[in-house]
Amino acid sequence: MTARPQRPDWDEYFLDIARVVARRSNCRRRRVAAVIVCDRRIVSTGYNGTPRGIRNCDEGGCPRCASDVSSGERLDECICSHAEENAIVQAAFHGIPVRGGTVYCTTSPCLMCCRMIINAGIREVVYEQEYHFSGIARRLLEEAGVRIRRWTKVPGAGSGRAQSRRRGGSGSRREPSAREAENR
């Protein structure tokens, strides 16, 4: 009898889906995605790229992204929408509530997206890669009571096991809530 592969925990499951969503991005510089989850159900997804009806970024739709400007510079000239922004706006467009949900992001959210996350009533941000996650953005989420977790793969933990960490945390596995434990 062969060993059965480990099931991914919920964080890994939703981040795996976010990585697939990121493949839809048409940004020439970085592919990013966000998945909004309420009660362990995906309610919206988003990826970065030009707004609806505008030529795609990879087709020259965004002059800044088509230029040779350095990463992080002249961001005020970029016309692309961020993944978190698109996920929130798509939910609103279709009349789907996100209040109380969790957003899973392949990359940490910017200050603008943090403001949108707070105003949408999202209660938790789980992200994989850190990209210019400013202290101001982090403090804003914390002050608003939004939980922030950086997810990292546990090296050598076998197939698909992962742990969630708070930035600067001890690195120990997060204890599941009573609800999480009963739903495993």
Comma- or semicolon-separated keywords:
single chain, 184 residues, 6-stranded mixed β-sheet, 6 helices, 20% strand, globular
Number of strands: 6
Principal-axes shape call: globular
Q: In what range is the share of β-strand residues?
A: 15-25%
Output the structural class. Answer: alpha/beta
State the order of secondary-structure elements, H for helix, E for strand.
HEEHHEHEHEEH
Sheet bearing the most strands, described? Answer: 6 strands, mixed
Short summary:
With 184 residues, this protein is an alpha/beta fold.
Q: Which SSEs are present, and which pair or pack?
A:
Layout: H1 10-22, E1 33-38, E2 41-47, H2 63-66, H3 83-93, E3 102-107, H4 111-120, E4 124-129, H5 135-143, E5 147-153, E6 162-165, H6 178-182
Overview of this protein structure:
By secondary structure, the chain is an alpha/beta fold. The chain has helices at residues 10-22, 63-66, 83-93, 111-120, 135-143, 178-182; strands at residues 33-38, 41-47, 102-107, 124-129, 147-153, 162-165. The longest helix has 13 residues, at 10-22. Residues 158-184 have low confidence and may be disordered.
